[in-house]
Amino acid sequence: MSTSSSERAVVYVDESANSGQNLLDPHQPVFTVAGVHLPDGLAASIVDEVRGQLPRNLREPKYTSLAGSSRGRKSLMNAFSHDCPREACRPTSSTSDSW
Fold first, then answer.
1. CB–CB of 29/98 below 8 Å?
2. CB atoms within 10 A of CB 46
3. End-to-end CA distance of the chain
């Protein structure tokens, strides 16, 4: 099945403090990337909403920064509580292990 570039999803991934390509790291024997594909408009509105609740000096909404304050945790909970039609929002994941 072929799709045009305008139909392809853009995926952003963050390693979340992973040890990188050190696949033999005994402290991180499994590496998983998970996410959900959202329609562009919904994703943009969620990001804008989170950024609007953050201090201006926080350039990027990082989980560790958000989880460290009650305001940040509230922002995360609001972001995760958005309804999205099942046909428009698709969960995705990939797991790799060093075995």
1. yes
2. 16
3. 32
